[in-house]
Amino acid sequence: MIERYTLPEMRRIWSEEYKFQKWLEIEILACEAQAALGNIPAETLRDIKERARFDVRRILELEAVTRHDVIAFLTCVGEYVGEAARYIHMGLTSSDILDTALAVRMREAGEQILSRLERLREVLLERAREHRRTLMMGRTHGVHAEPTTFGLKMLLWASETERNIRRMRRAVEVVSVGKLAGAVGTYATVDPRVEAYVCARLGLRPARVATQVVQRDRHAEYMSTCALVAASLDKFATEIRNLQRTELREVEEFFAAGQKGSSAMPHKRNPITAERVSGLARVVRANALAALENVALWHERDISHSSVERVIIPDSTTLLDYMLARFTGIMERLLVYPENMRRNLERTGGLVFSQRVLLALVARGMDRDEAYRLVQRHAMSCWRGEGGFLDLLRSDEAVRARLSEEELHGLFDYGYFLRHVDDIYARFGL
Fold first, then answer.
1. Catalytic residue among 89, 95, 131, 141
2. Structurally, what CATH architecture does the domain formed by 1-90 represent?
3. What secondary structure letter does DSSP report for 352?
4. Which pTM value belongs to this model?
């Protein structure tokens, strides 16, 4: 699944090649810092920088023997560097490299997700502009409530996407922390200035305090943010799936020439991409729970988190990147059917105006409870197919006593529901 659908940037970030590149970059930066402190001769540093390289296949061969990925990596690099390799990894522990490199990759993955979110926001705002006054049925409990506009639905999603952008920015900031503080975070074997230099060069902040590892509440916040973004996409996709139901058919995923919806039923046009987004959101949400389980480690560190992170962090960021790309594609080419929206508005024979009639009767002096019972009685008759709502009201003497024919007819005006749409749009600068 991941290999088939991974988009190029995420594939690069989570590749073994790139991981080892980051490890080597951190080791060389640490050597530069040590040389500046007088702990590595200048000519030795030059040798290290000129010769240091790795071979992924060789690292995997060595790891099969050492059963330790960092030692296998260092051994492989040492085979290229020679005698000067004794200065590489000086005073460091494996997690200094692992966690700092992971922070860089999580930041880059987060930035990729942010770029996707920004694009989705743009598309949603464009659809909001397009459908500013496209009336559709608002539904609560799945039942007709009062009219809204499709543009307002798009603004709602754009606003939620903006919140997700802010959340993701914070999550990237929280996780952009490096650590080169030795075996239990005391700097007993490495000068704090090495950490400061390496982190500055990588665009990270040094952890204010650490154990052998960067604390996993940071990663849990990042993963929880990914889960929130996925939950929003699930929400949006679920709405599209509902609106595409045959009896509504107010919107529809683009159906390409030659596309087929069913092996058995040639008529089928299914919201398969929206369904895929909803399904994958479940995986990202589940991974967030695993990240929360990783927060509690024994004493200064165990490795119960490590095997989990090797799965959940690449998977969640890769899936979210894919989901955002696909859902943005849905929205760019979404088929919108205003005529069906209008048809559905009118299916209940004017019942959407029930609150307007209720308020008008109360304004004319009728007790609210009495007005409610009156309007509800006629509404139930309309539900049963005993007449149109307006006609039923016209025939009621208590209604005629308070509202003229013209006033009553004037209450059945869809424009009433659009009165403050522009005020909402103004909040978005539209």
1. 141
2. Orthogonal Bundle (1.10)
3. G
4. 0.94
Catalytic residue among 68, 115, 262, 304: 262
Lookup: tokens for 279? 């399904």
Instruction: Domain 95-188+204-254+268-345: give its CATH architecture.
Output: Up-down Bundle (1.20)
Q: Which fold has domain 351-411?
A: Ribonucleotide Reductase Protein R1; domain 1 (1.10.40)
pLDDT of residue 5: 52
Instruction: Specify whether 263 is catalytic.
Output: no
Q: Which residues of 254-285 are buried (b: 16+ CB within 10 A; e: fewer)?
A: ebeeeeeeeeeeeeebbbebbebbbebbebbb
Q: Which residue has the tokens 């930066």?
A: 29
Least confident of 128-137, 222-231, 260-269: 260-269
192-221 pLDDT, tens digit per residue, is 999 999 999 999 999 999 999 999 999 999
Task: Please say if 262 is a catalytic residue.
Answer: yes
Please list, in sequence order, all residues whose beta carbon lies within 8 angstroms of the beta carbon of residue 52, skipping any fewer than 6 positions away: 24, 27, 28, 77, 80, 81, 88
Task: Please tell me the predicted confidence (pLDDT) of residue 1.
Answer: 41
